[in-house]
Structure formats: structure tokens, C-alpha cells
């Protein structure tokens, strides 16, 4: 029923989107296009909710599968311990029987010689039990008489000690056998649960794929509507400026607010005079005046909207992250070829007074700079976005590092960019890595097992959240319940209105976790914590509907679904917001000459370039057996080959960036395999270390798309 109601909702939203006229960005219309209806924003949230639901399905299956795998290991361990204990008990029993038999012989000697026993009647009867009734005469009766007293006592002590040891060993063996039987039953139960959940997950993901594809198309329409609304707003400004009869001045003439051309006044934003802009009063209204160069840059940026993204491309058909910004500001500003080199060359301005046309640099001190956009009003920017596959209007992310105004020229004081790490590449142009190291040390849940209930999931839409959807995972628990760090990192304490008391932990490499609504904080700002360490207690501070922990995982500043992290202790984080194995077909690219095979489009382009080079060398095309793998097919493969296949939802096949090859490449040491080792990296393809010879899981045929050598 839920799926049907969602489809009806999306269909209705699609009808609303369809009536929104999309302008041609190369020209201005007399009547600005109105913004899309508010309900259209439901489309984006619906897609995000579908993505969150898909990730939750995968996380649930992963958690069950991991529990099963751990149970199998525990059963093997307990079975081995039980067998060892049983063998040990059998040995002790044998020793006990030997020692008791010896005691019986000594007792018989004493009886035959008429020597009173020193061990008591009851013990004497116990000692005689293992001895045969017909006893042979002892050869040296006189020696026995001399030694019998002390020998009988010593032997009695040895026999009773052996008997006690045998009993202890037997009890231990019984306990360990019971533990082994319990563990074996747990394996059987979890095994059935895994199979059941595999069937449920496969069916659920198959049902979601159709909905995901529909929501994806609706989101594309929404993006076009958002582009149109931003352009209409820009048109309105230009129309208002034209009505003042003021011709946009050259950048150099309004650089200094104290020396403006006649008729222009300083422009003030957030209580500050804005250099590089001016104002004029017309019909009783103050109108902002931007430079001609700035207006041209923004107009150019709008003309790029909808053009496809391509890594490092500078147009005219495709644009990379920096390419769109560079083209927008040419010829006035010739931007360097790296974002980190842009930062030192142009004057930084306060973020509170950002104006259209400013260059917005995204990044952090711990990673470096990895994204750039052209500022618009309303906390929006135009940027080439890899995750969306095109140049789009998007919200300025939280991790804005700096705003630069090219019309102000060189900075007044040196501006040094943060040192860029290899992790900066992981967050290029609005995208995140397809697989991610979740930090050093163990990874645990923020609240102990059995102490919480799962609350509002990541991605749920609603007016309670400023983003329009829930950016974390809630854990409902009583006030005062212990909250733990999920892995090692450095603490930063904050008190935003929405969270009340917030602990933010930086785990390095762009990974952060957030713990909100705490009733108390038990760690100091700047402290280093380890996995499982108590950092606070559940509360209901800030914008909260009741006692719970709001838990977030952020990568490069963007909130991502925490559940895969919690389920596996590591994760694949997605591409374009989609879940592993749940990428709609229209977001993938086919491989010509390879029937049915598909990859992420940048991986497909690089793969086909590699195919051409391979064909020149060997006279035949690359032989391929596997490429993009849906979640359902991952589950099926894992069910058939659990020791070989990756855990469903974690395979890079599910991101469309992995291939399995044949035709000689599937054997170490062949000419074809050696060619791949020597040449594949040129096209961005690598053979992962775990698949190398001697790496534990030897798979010469498996290759993955990584960072191209030219990037």
C-alpha cells in the first residue's frame, strides 16, 4: 500500500512539475518565470527517502549477515573447545582409573598381609572396586610389609586427586558441549533468518527500483525547475537594474566604496560596506549595482546550466568542477587549474556579504579544497556537480571554506590554502567516494544494544527540518542513557539552537559524527576519544519532540545515511545519492560491443578508451563477464558463494565501477594480464590489493575504476 500511495504522490507531483515553463538560459524573457510550486520540493525528498529506505534494507541485511558470520565463527570456536575438553576429560578419566587400580592392589596387599588399613573402611571398599577378586600372591611379601603403610596413603591421595581432576574435566566438557550445541543452534536459526531476509531484501529492492527510477526522473524535473527559478530571480534583478537607467560599471570603478562614480552610493550588506558593488536609489528603493564583469560571469554561468559534467572538462559541451567556474569568469579572470591555486590569487570576502558572481570554495582545513561554485543570492550557487551529472543550481554546502571576489584583484594579505590530502579527491564536485574508510580503531553503535528503539530514519521528509528532510538517524531512549563515541576522533562541543547540546567528533579524512539533544556532555572540547567511550547522555534539548539521540554521519560536510556504517563498521557511501546496487538504468552508461553490461558513465568512458588500446595490442576487444551488479543479484551471488562474494551492498560492482574480465586477463602471468598491469592505470582502472596473488582472495579478473592518472 505504501508503494502505491508513493507512486500516486509522485505522479501528482510530476503533473505539477510539468506545468512549470523552463526558460532558455541564453536569453531573457519579458515576464520572469515564476518559482515552482512549493509541493514540487516533495519530489527531491521522496527520492532521498527512497534512497534511505534502500540503504536501510541493505543495512538490515548486512547486520543479520554479519551476525550469522560471527555466529559461525563462534560455533567453530566453541565446537573446537568442546572437543578439546572432551578429549582432556577422557584422558583424565583414564589416569583416574589407573591410579584407582593401583590403590586397589595396595589395599589388597595390606589385607593379605593382615596389616590394618589406614584409609578407613569406606575408602578401602572404594579402592578395591576396580581390582579383580582372584588376586595373585605378591612375590616380595616382606618388602610389601615394610612399605605398605606409607605407600597406601600416598596412593590413596593420588587416586582421589586423579578422580577429582577427572570429575572437573568432565563437568567442563559438559558445559562446553552445551555451549557448542547452543552456538550451533544459533547458527541454524540465523542461517534461516539470513535466507529469509535475503528473499525479503531482494523483493523489496526489486520493487524499489521502479519507484527509484520514477523518483529520479521527477528529481531531474525538479532540478530543471530549480534552475529556472534561480534564473527568473536573476532576470528580475537585471530588469530592476535596467529600470534605474544605470549602466553596469566596470569592476575597477566600484572596487573602492569610498571612490564611487557620481550617482552611485556604497552598497551595504549585513551591516558592512561591500567593496566591488554599489547601489542606487530608484523610485524610493535601493537597488544593488554589480559590475559589468560580474553580471557577464553570472550570465555565462547560467548559460552552462544543464550541460553534462565530465572530470576536468572545460567545455564547450561538458564541464568539470573548476571548468564551469573558469569559463564563467573568462576573460576577466583566468583561473588556475587547481582550486587550491585559486585561493591565493583573489581577495577573500566575509561570508555574510557574499554577492552573485563570487567564487565559493568548498573544503576544510583537514582535507583541503575540493569544490567550487559561482554564488547566487539566497544561499545558492551554480556549480558543475558530479553527483548530479551536470552544471546545476544547488545549495551552498555547510563546509564553505571561503568566498573570493575576482573583481577585487589580488588579496590585500597572503591567503594560504589548506594542505590538500588524497582524501580531498574523494569529495570532488559534490560527490563522495564510492567506498570509505570509517577511521581508525573499532566502530560501534552510539547506544548500547537493548537500550534504545529505532526512531525517525535518515531521509524522512517533513517541515520539522530546515533541509526538508531528516539528516540523521534517531535512537529513542530515556533521558540519561549513556551515549558513546562510535570510533576514535577529536571532540568539538557546540550548542546550536536545533540541537541544544551537540558533540561533533572529527575522525579525520573528512569523516565526522554528530550527537545531538544531549542532556549532558561528559567530554571536554578538543579531547581525543576512543570507540565506545562515554561522551554524554540522551536528552531532549533543542528542537526535539521527546528524549532521543539524533546521530549523524557526515562526509566532506554532507550528511549521509548512518545505518550502513553502523551495520558494517565500514561502508560504501554511494554515488549521486543512490544506494549500492540501486542505481537507475538511466543514470548508467552501456558498454558498446558488450551486450547488457553497464557502468557509471565516467567509468564507462574510461573503459571504452582502454578497450580501444587493448584491441590495438591484441587485435580483439576486452572480454568481460560482469559489470554493474544490482543489489538483488549481489544477494543471489552471496547466497551461492558466501566465501567468494562481497557482502551485498558493499561491492563496487554495485556502484558501477568494477568489472570482471576474461580472455587471458583472468589468469596471473599471461600477456593479457601483464598488459592490464602496465596500462590500466592510465585509464583509471586498478587491480585492488586484496585481489593480488597471495592477497588472500586471488582474483586476477577483478578490476576497479579509481582515480585517473590525468586527474
UniProtKB/TrEMBL annotation:
One of its GO terms (biological process) is proteolysis. InterPro entries: Cell_wall_metabolism_enzyme (IPR050570), Dup_hybrid_motif (IPR011055), M23ase_b-sheet_dom (IPR016047), NLP_P60_dom (IPR000064), Papain-like_cys_pep_sf (IPR038765), VanY-like_core_dom (IPR003709), Zn_M74/Hedgehog-like (IPR009045). Residues 1-29 form the signal peptide. CDD domains: M23_peptidase (cd12797), Peptidase_M15 (cd14814). Keywords: Hydrolase, Protease, Signal, Thiol protease. It comes from the Bacteria. Transmembrane segments: none annotated. Residues 291-413 form the NlpC/P60 domain. GO terms for molecular function: cysteine-type peptidase activity; metalloendopeptidase activity. The keyword Protein transport does not apply. PANTHER family: MUREIN HYDROLASE ACTIVATOR ENVC, PEPTIDASE-RELATED. Belongs to the peptidase C40 family. This is Peptidoglycan DD-metalloendopeptidase family protein. It comes from Kribbella qitaiheensis.
Amino acid at each position: 500500500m505504501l508503494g502505491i500511495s508513493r507512486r500516486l504522490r509522485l505522479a501528482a507531483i510530476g503533473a505539477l512539475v510539468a506545468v512549470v515553463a523552463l526558460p532558455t538560459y541564453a536569453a531573457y524573457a519579458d515576464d520572469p518565470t515564476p518559482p515552482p510550486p512549493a509541493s514540487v520540493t516533495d519530489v527531491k525528498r521522496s527520492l532521498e527517502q527512497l534512497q534511505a529506505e534502500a540503504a536501510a534494507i541493505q543495512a538490515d541485511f548486512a547486520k543479520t549477515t554479519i551476525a550469522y558470520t560471527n555466529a559461525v565463527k563462534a560455533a567453530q570456536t566453541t565446537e573446537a573447545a568442546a572437543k578439546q575438553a572432551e578429549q582432556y576429560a577422557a584422558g583424565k578419566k583414564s589416569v583416574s582409573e589407573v591410579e584407582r587400580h593401583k590403590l586397589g592392589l595396595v589395599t589388597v596387599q595390606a589385607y593379605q598381609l593382615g596389616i590394618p588399613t589406614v584409609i578407613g573402611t569406606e575408602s578401602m571398599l572404594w579402592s578395591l572396586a576396580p581390582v579383580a577378586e582372584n588376586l595373585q600372591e605378591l612375590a616380595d611379601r616382606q618388602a610389601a610389609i615394610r612399605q605398605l603403610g606409607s605407600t597406601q596413603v600416598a596412593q590413596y591421595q593420588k587416586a582421589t586427586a586423579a578422580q577429582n581432576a577427572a570429575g572437573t574435566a568432565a563437568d567442563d566438557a559438559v558445559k562446553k558441549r552445551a555451549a557448542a550445541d547452543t552456538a550451533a543452534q544459533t547458527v541454524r536459526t540465523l542461517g534461516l533468518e539470513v535466507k529469509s531476509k535475503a528473499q525479503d531484501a531482494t523483493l523489496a529492492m526489486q520493487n524499489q527500483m521502479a519507484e527509484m527510477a520514477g523518483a529520479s526522473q521527477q528529481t531531474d524535473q525538479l532540478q530543471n525547475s530549480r534552475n529556472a527559478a534561480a534564473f527568473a530571480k536573476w532576470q528580475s534583478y537585471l530588469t530592476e537594474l535596467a529600470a534605474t537607467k544605470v549602466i553596469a560599471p566596470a569592476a575597477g570603478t566600484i572596487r573602492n566604496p569610498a571612490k564611487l562614480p557620481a550617482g552611485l552610493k556604497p552598497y551595504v550588506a549585513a551591516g558592512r560596506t561591500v567593496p566591488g558593488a554599489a547601489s542606487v536609489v530608484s523610485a524610493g528603493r535601493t537597488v544593488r549595482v554589480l559590475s559589468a564583469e560580474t553580471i557577464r560571469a553570472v550570465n555565462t554561468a547560467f548559460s552552462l546550466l544543464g550541460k553534462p559534467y565530465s572530470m576536468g572538462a572545460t567545455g564547450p559541451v561538458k564541464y568539470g568542477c573548476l571548468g564551469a567556474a573558469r569559463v564563467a569568469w573568462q576573460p576577466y579572470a583566468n583561473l588556475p587549474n587547481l582550486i587550491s591555486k585559486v585561493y591565493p590569487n583573489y581577495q577573500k570576502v566575509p561570508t555574510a556579504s557574499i554577492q552573485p558572481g563570487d567564487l565559493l570554495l568548498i573544503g576544510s582545513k583537514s582535507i583541503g579544497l575540493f569544490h567550487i561554485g559561482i554564488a547566487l543570492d539566497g544561499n545558492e550557487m551554480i556549480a558543475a556537480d558530479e553527483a548530479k551529472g551536470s552544471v546545476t543550481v544547488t545549495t551552498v554546502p555547510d563546509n564553505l571554506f571561503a568566498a573570493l571576489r575576482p573583481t577585487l584583484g589580488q588579496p590585500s594579505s597572503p591567503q594560504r590554502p589548506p594542505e590538500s590530502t588524497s582524501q580531498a579527491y574523494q569529495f570532488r564536485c559534490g560527490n563522495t567516494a564510492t567506498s570509505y574508510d570509517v577511521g581508525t580503531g573499532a566502530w560501534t553503535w552510539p547506544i548500547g544494544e537493548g537500550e534504545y528503539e529505532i526512531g525517525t530514519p535518515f531521509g524522512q521528509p517533513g517541515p520539522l527540518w530546515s533541509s526538508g528532510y531528516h539528516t540523521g538517524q534517531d535512537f529513542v531512549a530515556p533521558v540519561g542513557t549513556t551515549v558513546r563515541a562510535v570510533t576514535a576522533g577529536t571532540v568539538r562541543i557546540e550548542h546550536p539552537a536545533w540541537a541544544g547540546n551537540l558533540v561533533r567528533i572529527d575522525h579525520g579524512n573528512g569523516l565526522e559524527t554528530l550527537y545531538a539533544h544531549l542532556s549532558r556532555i561528559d567530554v571536554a572540547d578538543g579531547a581525543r576519544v576512543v570507540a565506545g567511550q562515554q561522551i554524554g547522555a540522551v536528552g531532549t534539548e533543542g528542537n526535539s519532540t521527546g528524549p532521543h539521540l539524533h546521530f549523524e554521519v557526515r562526509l566532506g560536510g554532507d550528511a549521509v545515511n548512518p545505518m550502513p556504517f553502523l551495520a558494517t563498521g565500514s561502508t560504501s557511501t554511494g554515488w549521486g545519492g543512490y544506494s549500492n546496487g540501486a542505481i537507475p538504468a538511466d543514470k548508467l552508461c552501456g558498454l558498446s560491443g558488450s551486450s547488457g553490461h553497464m557502468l557509471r558513465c565516467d567509468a564507462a568512458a574510461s573503459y571504452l578508451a582502454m578497450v580501444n588500446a587493448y584491441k590495438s595490442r591484441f587485435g580483439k576487444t576486452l572480454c568481460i563477464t560482469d559489470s554493474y551488479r544490482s543489489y538483488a543479484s549481489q544477494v543471489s551471488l552471496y547466497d551461492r558463494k558466501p566465501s567468494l562474494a562481497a557482502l551485498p551492498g558493499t561491492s563496487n560492482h554495485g556502484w558501477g565501477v568494477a568489472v570482471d574480465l576474461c580472455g587471458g586477463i583472468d589468469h596471473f602471468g599471461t600477456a593479457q594480464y601483464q598488459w592490464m598491469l602496465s596500462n590500466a592505470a592510465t585509464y583509471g582502472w586498478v587491480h585492488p590489493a586484496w585481489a593480488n596473488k597471495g592477497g588472500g582472495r586471488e582474483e586476477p579478473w577483478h578490476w576497479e575504476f579509481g582515480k585517473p592518472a590525468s586527474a
